[in-house]
Design goal:
Rossmann fold; 2 domains; alpha/beta; 15 helices; eight-stranded mixed β-sheet; 416 residues
Length: 416
């Protein structure tokens, strides 16, 4: 079978969760099938919409250059004819039996239609909420969870993209029209997806609540390459807590720091590991992180790391803190913690309680509540045997080989 994986970014350009998963899945599928990847890159030194053909980890990669230089209206952000034409050339060249979409942000939402015009099967893994929310995470401008798409709510968040700084009645009416237009378009192109894959029940139910067909959504958890992980820990005289992931406001990094500073103890350490991302242009968050640490010598901000070092990082922490404040889907980092025998303190929000059940390798704390998180840190400090107990109760994690086999059955069913 010839398979094309489509995603908004791909290693080595970016090593975030969905990109890492798409890479591991593609490698697993490539053991028995022909697999290529189509993705976006942003290189201002290259021609706009140029498609580079290269090989990465023995996978053929098509990288479309998109710097949004030709955006003249809101619609150009999520669908673009020049991008469609470039994708059609790749479809004609690779001629896949099935196209597996992981994300269409920074690409074009017309892609599923173009595949169906050629008689190709389609499936779409819902890694977040982007089909429903242009910002992707249903987190509003006040960093509060949104209850779902609504014209007025969406325009509040997207005003700069849709109508700019104008606030007249006419501009708002035009903005409402543009929001409705995107929603109608997404509803239309969704009919060209044979199967949606949701890595959590929470994510599936959220999409069904917002109008998606529940008969075409299958809940299927992520798989991992177990050979990359080990439960061994490097010896240390300290009790080591860690944050691993993107340093951005939706991930709640500052909450981990605030909570840790509420707990006394010279024998405690906290490391912050990850790449800084300015969330939707929100500037100054990294300065906020540094200010939050308040010069506490127990806190070390390590910054960006190569993903091939993630096992080394886990080997140097005893407890992972995962303080995200948005409707997380099925965070890869939590499952990597399970694979490395690292207990997790995790927000009780979104799909996280579905993945991280209390007493099974983790403890939950109230989303955004640094005091509650500090209480959980103290609990582990006062009774360190709990850490070993949590290590012994880690839930199992699906292998990427098993996940690839599950998806191959879905591909076969779609193309049969």
């Amino acid at each position: 079978m010839r398979i094309l994986q489509v995603i908004h970014s791909f290693p080595p350009d970016n090593w975030s969760g969905s990109e890492i998963y798409a890479l591991r899945l593609s490698q697993a599928l490539a053991r028995t099938d022909e697999v290529a990847v189509f993705c976006r890159r942003a290189d201002p030194g290259r021609p706009e919409f140029e498609v580079d053909r290269e090989v990465f980890k023995n996978l053929p990669i098509y990288r479309l250059n998109n710097n949004f230089l030709s955006v003249k209206r809101f619609e150009d952000i999520y669908r673009h004819e020049a991008i469609n034409q470039a994708f059609c050339q790749v479809l004609n060249e690779w001629n896949p039996d099935i196209v597996h979409f992981h994300h269409l942000t920074c690409l074009s939402t017309d892609f599923p239609v173009l595949c169906k015009d050629r008689g190709m099967g389609t499936c779409y893994t819902l890694h977040d909420y982007w089909l429903l929310c242009q910002r992707g995470q249903f987190l509003d401008l006040n960093l509060e969870p949104c209850q779902g798409p609504g014209t007025a709510r969406c325009l509040t968040c997207l005003q700069e993209q849709v109508v700019g700084p104008a606030s007249s009645l006419i501009s708002r009416l035009w903005g409402y029209h543009q929001i409705h237009k995107r929603r109608r378009h997404i509803a239309k192109i969704s009919r060209f997806i044979d199967r949606f894959i949701a890595p959590s029940r929470f994510l599936a139910d959220f999409h069904v609540k917002c109008g998606f067909d529940d008969e075409r959504i299958e809940v299927l958890g992520y798989g991992f390459d177990h050979s990359l992980y080990s439960t061994s820990k490097k010896a240390s005289p300290f009790l080591r807590f860690g944050f691993i992931g993107s340093i951005m406001v939706s991930k709640g990094t500052e909450i981990a720091i605030q909570a840790f500073r509420l707990v006394a103890g010279d024998e405690l350490r906290l490391t912050i590991n990850g790449r800084y991302f300015p969330y939707h242009g929100l500037k100054g968050y990294m300065d906020q992180i540094k200010t939050s640490s308040g010069g506490d010598q127990r806190i070390q901000i390590e910054g960006e790391f190569r993903h091939d070092r993630v096992q080394d990082i886990f080997s140097e922490i005893d407890v992972l803190i995962f303080p995200s404040i948005w409707y997380e889907n099925s965070p890869l980092t939590i499952q990597e913690a399970f694979l490395t025998g690292t207990p997790v303190l995790v927000s009780d929000f979104g799909a996280m309680p579905e993945l991280a059940r209390p007493g099974q390798g983790c403890l939950l704390f109230q989303k955004g509540n640094a005091e509650d998180l500090a209480d959980k840190i103290r609990l582990l400090c006062d009774d360190r045997s709990m850490i070993e107990t949590l290590r012994r109760t880690m839930p199992s994690v699906k292998s990427i080989a098993e996940n690839a086999s599950e998806l191959k059955e879905i591909y076969d069913d779609i193309t049969r």
